[in-house]
Amino acid sequence: NLWARQGHEVTIVTSRHGSLPADTTQNNLRIIRLEVGRRSVSRGRVREMLRYMVRSRATCEAVHDQVRPDLVVAFITLPSGVAPAHLRSRYGVPLVTELRGGDVPGFWPDHLNGFHLLTKPWIRSIWNASSLVIANSRGLAELAARTSPHIHFKTIPNGVDTQVFKPSSQKSTEDPKKRPRRGSAGRRAPR
């Protein structure tokens, strides 16, 4: 974690998967993994998310009492934003919410429409409590603005500085067989 490497004390509250330890600390980084019955490392089920929302609130309350954070960050609105929004409401701790896709009403409607119909009031409440809401693309920020047009959504394109990391404007003269090969990993789904 960049903030921990810069000397900040960082606590991450997440869900536990497999045999990972429940609580670890290394240098300035503490990771608390909550047991929620997580089956997949890459995708949470509704039951797991609900357990996380309940358990993370109590855990974050205890962490707040121990370290008095200057800032809380929700990596995704739901389920991660419930506990930080509670800390914002109860203690006034500034909240930053990061939008990742599935937490934005209208994203992947064939699969998430019912979920978004049920959770839209919570989503709006968390966004409204946030000092800053960051989307990982301009398109996601525009989609989020349909739900909450009064919020100014900031965009950080998936954490990559597109002014620094961009294709060269010059055609390569290298032998194509000697050029580095690139790979990518991620979830592809129609949006």
Account of the 3D structure:
This protein is α/β, with parallel strands linked by helices and 191 residues long. Helices cover 35% and strands 19% of the residues. The chain is built from 5 helices and 7 strands; from the N terminus they run αβββαβαβαβαβ. The strands form 2 sheets. A 4-stranded parallel β-sheet has the order 4-5-6-7. The chain has a 3-stranded mixed β-sheet with strand order 1-3-2. Helix 2 runs parallel beside helix 3 (82-91) and helix 3 (82-91) runs parallel beside helix 4. It is globular and about 60 Å long.
List the secondary-structure elements in sequence, H or E. Answer: HEEEHEHEHEHE
End-to-end distance, in Å?
30 Å
- Mean of the pLDDT scores? 90
Structural class: alpha/beta
List keywords for this structure.
alpha/beta; about 190 residues; four-stranded parallel β-sheet; three-stranded mixed β-sheet; about 20% strand; globular
Topology:
Blueprint: H1 2-5, E1 10-17, E2 23-26, E3 29-38, H2 46-67, E4 72-74, H3 82-91, E5 95-99, H4 109-129, E6 132-135, H5 138-147, E7 154-155
Parallel strand pairs: 1-3, 4-5, 5-6, 6-7
Antiparallel strand pairs: 2-3
Brief digest:
With 191 residues, this protein is of the alpha/beta class.
